[in-house]
Predict the structure.
Amino acid sequence: MAQNAPAGWKNYEDFAAGIDTNRLPPSAALVGQPLLFALPGSELALDIEGPNRVGWSWRGERGHDWCEVIEVAPQTWFVDMTFEQRSLEALTLVFNSATRRALAVPARVRSAEEAGAEPRVAQEFLVGTLGRDASAASGLVPHPSRDLIGLRTLQTYSPHHVYEHTYLSSTRYAWQCLKGEQRGHGDVDLSTVFQFAENQYLFTFREFIIPVASTFFFNFDTLRSTGKFLGVTGAGCVANNPAGAFIHELSRSVYPDGIQPA
């Protein structure tokens, strides 16, 4: 399902298998704990019913669907959800149960006609709090960040999946595959970075050639990356796949005063 792809370009499923080898394990610590999040425009209510089951209510709808919960830093949780009745959509939520800060990233696969020249998978960024009382939240408010600009890293997802990332600007990053099915392939795609806390970032990207987007939590204290991909396979099926990597910092570009990336 790659559009205008060079010859030999891989589909989503060609590289997704095994890319979760170095992912942190799921946690059952939130099972049985009702959670309420105040997000722009609507409250999100979650009830983690089991290791991969969540009851939810959001934007006038409710249901019981698949989820996965991972503790990505002390008291910081990465929650990923899909929706059986809305198969083109997924939701990723990061929150800290101590500071009560939250950041939700809904993603949606659009038709080629709707997307036009943009990547087919769109993302939103919703900053909120755990609980209705925003004054109870403390610490840094999640916000768009330029902190990664100029950084070059290796992302080792497995012994067979190694990628290089270069964070070019506030809206774009470059990648190339050093080891794996996509070896020799690379591109520049749209990206968004939010700082969540000190040394913690949410990194997302939206690819042009393959209809896929990703949401990753970067913990630079432990040099671990935890995330997911939402995309369309070569057969036209929507898939939501887990991923995780060890981060190795290679270098950082330092720009002269007055000459900075956008």
